[in-house]
UniProtKB/TrEMBL annotation:
GO biological process, one term: lipoprotein metabolic process
Residues in Vitellogenin domain copies: 1-234
A GO cellular component entry from the record: basolateral plasma membrane
Gene: Mttp_1
GO molecular function: phospholipid transporter activity
Cited PANTHER family: MICROSOMAL TRIGLYCERIDE TRANSFER PROTEIN, LARGE SUBUNIT, MICROSOMAL TRIGLYCERIDE TRANSFER PROTEIN-LIKE
Name of the protein in its database record: MTP protein
InterPro entries per record: Lipovitellin_superhlx_dom, MTTP, Vitellogenin_N
Amino acid sequence: FIQMLRSAKKRDVLQLLRRAPEGMLPFVVEAAVAAQSVASLAALSDFLDFSKEPTSLLEKFLYAAAFSPRPSGELLRLVLDKLDGKQLAPEVQETGIIAMGSLVGKLCQQKLCGLQQEVKSGVETILRGLRGAKEESKVVIYLLALGNTALPETIPPLLDHAEEGPAAVAAAAISALRRFPARHISSKVKRAMRRIFHEKRKSYEKTCRLAAAEILLDNEPSPMDVINILLAANELETEMATFLLLKVQNSLR
């Protein structure tokens, strides 16, 4: 079916979308996203009205985009266009932000970062949203999207929120940092993780401290980091101490 859509003209894909029975429509939308031809994406652009379509169908489209294994810049542009400046249901907006981060990250994995204007627009949209977000839940969504991009230029805001944010925000920021490859876990990132784990500036939730310790142990840990984490484990709850001990043992193996 996807192969058929890849060779179809825009008007044929659009006609298929408009005539599909309600129960089949999500399947056709997913297939059109997977086809990623110029015609199928243009048909989706004409068909999907984010101010009218049911929330479930819009989320289906955004999830299909987010999970696309090798997305194109055109797919990211379609998502950006559909989300830009529109009043959307909160769940659609949140799914769209997460999808945007996922698409940016995958395009950069394909070495297309510098070639796609859409990538720059996607990152700027997420960062702008993060700066303007007032509610804690919205800040968390933008931080998760930044984690999906795994781009080094997003690390400074992630570090700021990891150290200074409230519990849920700090947890989301540290979780996002864990998704970055080892080459991006710099000495600056490690210093911040040490401060969080050893609670140098303020108290942190248990999950935040454990995630910070994992970043240190999973990214070429220094002997001193290992020693200090093991010494600190003596003062932690049994479950936390056991978890950290197992992490160190696994690293040794």
